Amino acid sequence: MKEIVKTPQYEIAIDETKNRVYLKVIGYWRNPESVANYVSDWRKTLALLKPNFTLLTDLSTMLTHPAEVLGIHKQAQELLTENGLRHTAEVAPKDFVTAFQLSKVAKSSQMPVRQFPTVAEAEAFLDTLI
Questions:
Q1: Contact assessment for residue 39 and residue 76, using Cβ atoms and an 8 Å cutoff
Q2: Would you identify the CATH topology of the domain 2-127?
């Protein structure tokens, strides 16, 4: 696995052999300025992937974000979808409100996503798509 970026708010890595990207969202994103490079970090990541890549998103430690930050998630999801995302396996946040927030964002961005209770189950599902 190749680490692309690691910040206090998120981590992005890729596995080139699986054409898979891994995202871990960490804690509370106070405002858009706290994640100012998020979308540009995704652009850098997308340059390293081939079409039909998969995404494993670990949101297990994510906390509810303010509304203005949700727009950044939507922008990133639309970018991923437009650039060849095949499917997303998401480890849901433990907080119900956060899970509900993200479900609405994924629907509005039309990102293909399925939720799982663990990273291992999410990974196993994505492996069936290879």
A1: yes
A2: Transcription Regulator spoIIAA (3.30.750)
